[in-house]
């Protein structure tokens, strides 16, 4: 983990809570308080108040341009609309009043870990999340075969992550024996680094790395999953995630962080209706997901009563890839514990998945750097003596 001292900027109106933060900062060797007009903002601790609608665009822009390294929202209550807006913009921390020193320290540790991941040199890997609107779409089979093809290009550079709950099946598709799961990472997330990650990962005989899911274990909490996925992205060229969409939760991190969201479907009216609702749900929580969602018609039979063109009209969206049905070969491969693309390289389904991979993996693009903005007036406003107590709206 990065050992540097993290600068902290306070935009807090509540004088009592501001004083508590100042005391905690003074007693924490990992952080230091900076003046409101300092060139570096570091971690911005922001308390939404009556002017939240005016402030939030500036706060978000500070984060997006890199002027703020991280942003913590603080207050008495968490307004759901503000939290959703904050999460979509990359703000991951909310600390409730009265401030608890352990909560503050934990948030600082998470920031330090994210900073350490971001400081790694070289291009970061890509995350491809595969999911469907319901079970039975062939999601696991598709994820396993995508990972196998990518791994064949450069063995050891691809990892397959099993996030299906209550228990995934990727080990069965690979006849894989394993000792550890991502449960170990969640239970000791403070140790997470490249070395610890590699000690937990299982390796298939093909060189494909796999991070299985524990049996009967709940999904990782959002903070832990974010850190795990970013650590995977820093250690592998390709990260393939096999998952199911949890409709009763906020946008899952494996969807939010994915470079490509691959939605598997089959050509039936109930499936098309569920797929449409799934896309609407993702789109409503993350507008940027529109460009990252790609549809895959899987297990398409020759005599299907609904054609691909008809399905695209129903969904009002292009189906990018079509994987033909090859049930005999697919079932045989599963029973062998061997990916279809390795067991039956001449299968029509194998050729279709190979074509999918050829067009899917993009040329890495370098991240754009941000620019600085003046925030002096913003901090002055938060520190006025006659300000109302903020945080009530959060």
Automatic annotation (TrEMBL):
<dbReference type="InterPro" id="IPR050625">
    <property type="entry name" value="ParA/MinD_ATPase"/>
</dbReference>
<protein>
    <submittedName>
        <fullName>Transcriptional regulator</fullName>
    </submittedName>
</protein>
<keyword id="KW-0067">ATP-binding</keyword>
<keyword id="KW-0547">Nucleotide-binding</keyword>
<dbReference type="InterPro" id="IPR027417">
    <property type="entry name" value="P-loop_NTPase"/>
</dbReference>
């Amino acid at each position: 983990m990065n050992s540097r001292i993290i600068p902290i900027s306070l935009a807090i109106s509540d004088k009592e809570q501001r004083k508590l933060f100042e005391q905690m900062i003074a007693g924490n060797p990992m952080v230091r308080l900076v003046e409101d007009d300092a060139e570096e903002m570091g971690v911005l601790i922001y308390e939404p108040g009556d002017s939240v609608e005016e402030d939030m665009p500036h706060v978000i822009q500070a984060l997006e341009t890199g002027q703020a390294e991280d942003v913590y929202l603080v207050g008495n209550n968490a307004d759901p609309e503000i939290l959703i807006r904050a999460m979509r913009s990359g703000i991951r921390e909310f600390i409730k009043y009265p401030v608890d020193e352990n909560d503050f320290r934990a948030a600082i540790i998470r920031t330090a870990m994210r900073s350490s991941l971001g400081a790694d040199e070289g291009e970061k890997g890509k995350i491809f999340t595969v999911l469907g609107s319901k079970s039975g779409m062939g999601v696991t089979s598709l994820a396993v075969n995508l990972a196998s093809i990518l791994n064949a290009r450069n063995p050891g550079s691809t990892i397959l992550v099993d996030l299906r709950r209550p228990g995934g099946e990727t080990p069965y598709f690979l006849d894989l024996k394993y000792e550890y799961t991502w449960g170990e990472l969640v239970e000791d997330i403070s140790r997470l680094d490249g070395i610890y990650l590699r000690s937990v990962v299982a390796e298939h005989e093909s060189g494909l790395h796999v991070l299985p899911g524990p049996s009967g274990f709940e999904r990782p909490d959002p903070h832990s999953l974010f850190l795990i996925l970013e650590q995977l992205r820093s250690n592998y060229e390709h990260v393939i995630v096999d998952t199911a969409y949890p409709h009763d939760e906020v946008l899952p991190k494996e969807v939010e962080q994915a470079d490509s969201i691959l939605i598997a479907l089959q050509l039936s009216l109930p499936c098309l209706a569920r797929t449409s609702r799934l896309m609407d749900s993702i789109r409503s929580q993350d507008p940027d997901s529109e460009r990252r969602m790609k549809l895959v018609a899987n297990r398409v039979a020759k005599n299907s009563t609904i054609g691909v063109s008809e399905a695209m009209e129903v969904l009002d969206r292009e189906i990018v890839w079509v994987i033909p049905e090859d049930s005999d070969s697919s079932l045989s491969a599963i029973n062998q514990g061997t990916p279809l693309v390795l067991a039956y390289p001449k299968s029509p389904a194998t050729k279709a998945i190979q074509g999918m991979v050829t067009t899917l993996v993009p040329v890495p693009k370098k991240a754009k750097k941000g620019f600085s903005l003046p925030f002096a007036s913003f901090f002055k406003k938060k520190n006025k003596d006659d300000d109302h107590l903020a945080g009530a709206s959060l």
